[in-house]
TrEMBL record:
SUPFAM superfamilies: FMN-linked oxidoreductases (SSF51395). This is L-lactate dehydrogenase [cytochrome]. Its cofactor is FMN. Residues 1-381 form the FMN hydroxy acid dehydrogenase domain. PANTHER family: 2-HYDROXYACID OXIDASE 1 (PTHR10578:SF107), S -2-HYDROXY-ACID OXIDASE-RELATED (PTHR10578).
Amino acid sequence: MSVITTIDDLKKLHKRRTPKMFYDYCESGSWTEQTFRDNESDFDKIRLRQRIAVDMTNRTTASTLIGEDVAMPLALAPVGLTGMQRADGEIKAARAAEKFGVPFTLSTMSICSIEDVAEHTTKPFWFQLYVMRDEDYVDNIIERAKRAGCSALVLTLDLQILGQRHKDLKNGLTAPPKMTPPVIADLATKWRWGIEMLQTKRRTFRNIVGHAKGVENMNSLSSWTAEQFDPALDWDTVRKLKEKWGGKLILKGILDVEDAKMAAEIGADAIIVSNHGGRQLDGALSSIRMLPSIVEAVGDRVEVHLDSGIRSGQDMLKALAMGAKGVMIGRAYIHGLGAMGEAGVTKALEVIHKELDITMALCGRRDVNTLDRDVLLVPEDFEGRWV
Ligand SMILES: Cc1cc2nc3c(=O)[nH]c(=O)nc-3n(C[C@H](O)[C@H](O)[C@H](O)COP(=O)(O)O)c2cc1C
Ligand SMILES: O=C(O)C(=O)c1ccccc1
C-alpha cells in the first residue's frame, strides 16, 4: 500500500487484513442498504463556498462536547465487536482517542470490558448502554461504568430489535467466529489477525458475561439480541435510567423532531441525530437531512450531535455548518483500526482533522465553533418536505 491519505485508503487495508465476517459486519447496512448509501451520498450533495483574501492565520478546531474540552468536536462512536476487528480493539481505539484529545465511547457489546479500557487509559471515556431484559445487568453495568469514572452515559434508543442485516445472517456472524471451512479458508489469508487474536484472552463480550446468558456460545448475533434486549424500553425507562446514572446523559438514535423534543424535555445533556449508520430502519432519511429541523426544534435546549455517513473532515464541517455541535464517527475509525491497529485509528483522526482544518481555511473561516450555513451551498430541495 502506498501512502495513506484518506479514510478510503484505510478502508481498503481494513478489508484486506480482517476476516470477511467482521469486515462485512462493519461495512454494511440493513435490508437494501438504501439509508446506508444515502448517509454518504447526501453529504456529497452539499457543496462549499470558496472565499478568498481572508486572513487564515491562527485557526482553531478546539471545542467542547458536553462541557469536555476536545481537540476537535468529534467523538468515537460506540461500535460493537470492535475487539474482533483487531485484538484488543477497544483498548487500542480508546488510547488513540485519548492521545488525540477526543472522547471514546465504549459499546455495551464490546470485547474488552469497561475495566480493561479503564486500566489502559488515563482519561474518562463514555459508556454506551443497551438495555436488556435482565434488570440486574443494567444496575450492575451502570455501577461499573460509574466506578470506572466514565464521564457520560450514551443511551442508545434505536436498537431494541436488530434491523435485518443480510450479510451477517449469510456469514453466520458470531464472536468469536465459529471455525467452519469457509471461515478457516478466509483466516488462512489473514494470519496477522489470527496471531494477534491468539495472543489475547479478550475474545468474547466481556461487559455482559455472567449476565446475558449464552453470550459465550451464541448461534447468531441476531437471535441472541432478540432474546436479550428489552423490547419494552420506553421514555419512562429513559427517565429511570437517567436517575440511576445521575451523570451526563447522551441519547443516541434520535431521527425525529418529536423524539428530539422528548429527549430535551427529559433533560438529556446531548442527543445524537443518528440512523445507526444505516444499520437499523432501512428507508429512514439520512441524519444530515434530518439535522436542520431537529436543531431548530431543540438546539437551544440540548447539544445536538450527529453521526452516520461521516467519512472526511469535509463531511464533518458540513454537519457542523448545518447546526451540529459535534459529530461521531463509526466506520471511519474502525477502518483505521482494522488496517493498522492503534496507529490506524490515530491516522483516521489525523486525516479527518487535516481535512477539516484545510476546508475551514479555504472557506475563509478560522474557528470551528463559528461555522454556519454561510459556508455551504445546499440544493434548494435538500430539506424538502417528505410527506
Ligand atoms: C460495526 C458497527 C457496530 C456498531 N455497534 C454499535 C453499538 O454497539 N452501539 C451503538 O449505540 N451503536 C453502534 N453502532 C452505530 C454507531 O455508533 C454509529 O451510530 C454509526 O456507526 C455512525 O455511522 P458511520 O459508521 O457512518 O459513522 C455500530 C456501528 C457499526 C458500523
Ligand atoms: O451492530 C450494531 O449496530 C449494534 O449496535 C449491535 C447490536 C447488537 C449486538 C452487537 C452490536
